[in-house]
Structures are given as C-alpha cells and as structure tokens.
C-alpha cells in the first residue's frame, strides 16, 4: 500500500496523491552554458526523466533560465537555490515549475514571505531538501551528529516556516550518503507529515557502488509504500541516473518503461561464445525503445524455453544457433553471428506492430501498457 499524501503539481507532472512515482535527475552542466544545458536536458528526457533540476548558484545562472525555459517549454524545470532569495525570485520570473530551497537558509521572514507570495501566485511548489552533510550547527550540537532525528527536526523547522505563511504546496527530501540513515529519516518523517516525499541517497558514489546503494535504500522505502518521486545520485551522466531509477521502479513493478531483459548468468552448459557481449549489445541497441517489453536471452535450452514462454520475445541458444521465440512460440532459428541484428529487428518490428494496432480504429485497438 502506498503512503497517502497530498498532491503537488510540477507543471504537468503530479507528485503524490496516488500518482505514479516520478523520475527526476539534475543537469551537470554549467547552467550559464545554455546550449550544453539544453542538450543535456533533451538527453535526459529521452532517457525517461520526467522532472529536471538545474543549479542556480548565481545571477548569471538565474538569467540563463529564461532562455532554457524558452527552448524546453514542455519539460518540468526545478531551480536549485541556496541562500539567496533573489535568485529564487529571478527563477520564478523565468518560469520555472518548482523551487528547491530551504526557507530557513534564505534570510529573514520577510524575504521568505516574498518568495512564498511569488510561488503562490504562479502555482509553483517548493521542495525542502535536507541533506545530512549540511545540517544546522545547533542540531549537530544537540544530537552530536547528523542523525535521522536531527534531519527530521531540520525538515520540520523548514516546513513550519512555510506553513506559518500559509504555504502547503510542499515536497520534502531527507538525503544522506548512507543507506541506513536515509531510510531511518524517511520512515520518521513519513509518520509526521502527509507531504509527498522525494527519495534519494545523496552522493551515492560511482555507477557501480552508487547504483547498489540507491537500489537498496530506495528499494526498501518504495517497498514500504514511502516515496512519491526519486532521484538516483551518481558520479555519472544524468541519463545513467535516469536509467537506474527506472530499473528500480521496474524491479518493484511500480512502473514500466522500455525493455526488461532477463538473461542467464551463464555456466558450463552455455552453448554460445561471447554471451555477455551479445546481451550487453542487444540491451544497448534497444535503449531507444520506451514501450514496456519483456525480453529473455538465455544461453542454453535448460531454462530458455520456459523464460521465453513468459516473454514478449526471447532467444535460446543451442550450438552455434539461436532460436527466437515470439509470445512464447518458436519463431525462427538464426546463427549466433547474426543473432544481435535479427533480435533487434524483431523487437523493433514488434513495437511497430503494436503502435500500428494502437493507432487503429476503436474496433481494432488493443490494450497496451501506458506509454511514459
């Protein structure tokens, strides 16, 4: 059961209120470089990013937002603001769809009120982002460290500032760089408020280690029904963050997008050379497919036919050949040297057939999973 929360709209994407869990990421370009930033945003969206955050560290970055907004008019944009309330006002004037700021860090109550009034006038929500690495000094002194309790107290401070000003269009995140503290903090806050929660293990690390930490931390919380939007924070391109986020959601059967590849781990029974290379290349070649498809690629005939029966398309290898299955039934044999090209073509043809049927008249239209 999903935790019940308020609904918050970020342009055309709803967060919370029972909406599908949204996938977010953040640009890693200099925001002032509009061309590079727009290119990266477009790449992120193609990978499945639904909400894009950009850093706004100074006036030049805030000024660049207007042109970025003009060039990606349909993408929900979040301005990441720290300390300077005027940057938040400039971001709102540029047309961003959400602010990420902590109201206790941008100055006096009057300054916060000015930002809140502008956000309310434009229907722009605010995400309070608590980070275990940058807690208030008094809370560190009180708790002795950036504990989950200290993180939650920090979040509640910022929440109350906005609530006292009559602002409730709020999303909250509580990120730490370790899994246990992150999970504990979100569990505590989930019992105190009904605002939607943005999940993430911050500064998770390299693609290998960071993916594992993020999958465990986000997976635990999502499995418990906690979380309304996610970001995977990796020392990698944002498109990689997006792909990992979608893989987490697909593994938990919370959302579906693109191909899911079931592949055997290989053993002494394998009947094809370079099996890992074949699987990796097929998966790479199918990154442009956003329709949900279940594929199986198996190295021998022991489990291959069974997995193929559960797949939209599958291939099972024998000595020097691969048998392609479609909807569980044998389709044709292909030599192992030709299997990548043949299998990719079959997938693309299946997608084209499904799209054609879905575009047909009401009598012929088939039911397909919702395209993201």
UniProtKB/TrEMBL annotation:
PANTHER family: 4-HYDROXY-3-METHYLBUT-2-EN-1-YL DIPHOSPHATE SYNTHASE, 4-HYDROXY-3-METHYLBUT-2-EN-1-YL DIPHOSPHATE SYNTHASE (FERREDOXIN), CHLOROPLASTIC. The keyword Lipoprotein does not apply. Residues 261-349 form the IspG C-terminal domain. Keywords: 4Fe-4S, Iron, Iron-sulfur, Isoprene biosynthesis, Metal-binding, Oxidoreductase. Pathway: Isoprenoid biosynthesis; isopentenyl diphosphate biosynthesis via DXP pathway; isopentenyl diphosphate from 1-deoxy-D-xylulose 5-phosphate: step 5/6. Its EC number is 1.17.7.3. This is 4-hydroxy-3-methylbut-2-en-1-yl diphosphate synthase (flavodoxin). GO terms for molecular function: 4 iron, 4 sulfur cluster binding; 4-hydroxy-3-methylbut-2-en-1-yl diphosphate synthase activity (ferredoxin); 4-hydroxy-3-methylbut-2-enyl-diphosphate synthase activity (flavodoxin); iron ion binding. [4Fe-4S] cluster binds at residues 264, 267, 300, 307. Converts 2C-methyl-D-erythritol 2,4-cyclodiphosphate (ME-2,4cPP) into 1-hydroxy-2-methyl-2-(E)-butenyl 4-diphosphate. GO terms for biological process: isopentenyl diphosphate biosynthetic process, methylerythritol 4-phosphate pathway; terpenoid biosynthetic process. Belongs to the IspG family. It comes from Pyrinomonas methylaliphatogenes. Gene3D superfamilies: Dihydropteroate synthase-like (3.20.20.20), Sulfite Reductase Hemoprotein, domain 1 (3.30.413.10). The gene is ispG. Binds 1 [4Fe-4S] cluster. HAMAP family: IspG.
């Amino acid at each position: 059961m999903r935790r019940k929360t308020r609904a918050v709209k970020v342009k055309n994407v709803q967060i919370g209120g029972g909406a599908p869990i949204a996938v977010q990421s953040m640009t890693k370009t200099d925001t002032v470089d509009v061309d590079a930033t727009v290119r990266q945003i477009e790449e992120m969206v193609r990978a499945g990013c639904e909400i894009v955050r950009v850093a706004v560290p100074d006036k030049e970055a805030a000024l660049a937002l207007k042109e970025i907004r003009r060039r990606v008019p349909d993408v929900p944009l979040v301005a990441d603001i720290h300390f300077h309330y005027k940057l938040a006002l400039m971001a709102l004037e540029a047309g961003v769809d959400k602010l990420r700021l902590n109201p206790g860090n941008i100055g006096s109550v009057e300054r916060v009120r000015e930002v809140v009034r502008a956000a309310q006038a434009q229907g722009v929500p605010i995400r309070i982002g608590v980070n275990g690495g940058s807690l208030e000094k008094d809370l560190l002194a009180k708790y002795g460290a950036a504990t989950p309790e200290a993180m939650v107290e920090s979040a509640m401070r910022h929440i109350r500032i906005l609530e006292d000003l009559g602002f409730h269009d709020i999303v909250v995140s509580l990120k730490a760089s370790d899994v246990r503290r992150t999970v504990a903090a979100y569990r505590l806050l989930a019992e105190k408020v009904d605002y939607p929660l943005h999940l993430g293990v911050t500064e998770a690390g390299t693609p290998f280690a960071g993916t594992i930490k993020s999958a465990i931390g986000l997976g635990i919380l999502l499995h418990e029904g906690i979380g309304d939007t996610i970001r995977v924070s990796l020392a990698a391109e944002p498109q990689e963050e997006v792909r990992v986020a979608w893989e987490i959601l697909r593994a938990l059967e919370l959302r579906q997008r693109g191909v899911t590849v079931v592949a055997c781990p290989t053993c002494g029974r394998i009947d094809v050379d370079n099996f890992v290379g074949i699987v990796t290349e097929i998966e790479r070649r199918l990154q442009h497919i956003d329709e949900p498809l279940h594929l199986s690629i198996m190295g021998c005939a022991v489990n291959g036919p069974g997995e193929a029966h559960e797949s939209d398309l599958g291939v099972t290898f024998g000595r020097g050949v691969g048998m392609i299955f479609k909807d569980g039934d044998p389709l044709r044999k292909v030599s192992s040297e030709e299997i990548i090209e043949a299998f990719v073509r079959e997938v693309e043809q299946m997608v084209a057939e499904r799209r054609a049927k879905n575009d047909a008249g009401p009598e012929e239209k088939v039911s397909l999973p919702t395209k993201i």
